[in-house]
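Appendix B, record 7
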Amino acid sequence: MIRTGATQAFEVFVVEDSPHIRERLIEMLDSIEGVRTIGSADSADEAVRAILAQRPDTVILDMKLSQGSGLDVLRAVHQAAPEIEVWMLTNFAGEPWRNTCRRLGAAQFFDKSTEFERVREGIALRAAECVAH
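Structure tokens (predicted):
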């Protein structure tokens, strides 16, 4: 859902408890043409409130948060706003976690330790697809 007007951008919200990884993600995403990070959070309650208020195109979501879990965020966002894509980026990458996240509505799932750069590639592709439409 590309915004109309002079500020057209594919908007992303980052939910990550590690300040270092959060900053790295934001820098990486903001380096993609046509993509803008519109916010970040490190706890479940803060994330859900901000995501539902700002309605980004995509959320990059870690499983482990400073308070609550990524599953709490995924469940709440998918229930209230299923049009928002949620992409999991976590160290909890086993198949049971992947299946649970898919069942709860995650659009993508990435292993933080081996697939970090794939998030950049995927967001760049999604942004380009949305601009084309």
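Remarks on this record: Residues 1-6 have pLDDT under 50 and may be disordered. Residues 70 and 105 are 12 Å apart (CA to CA).
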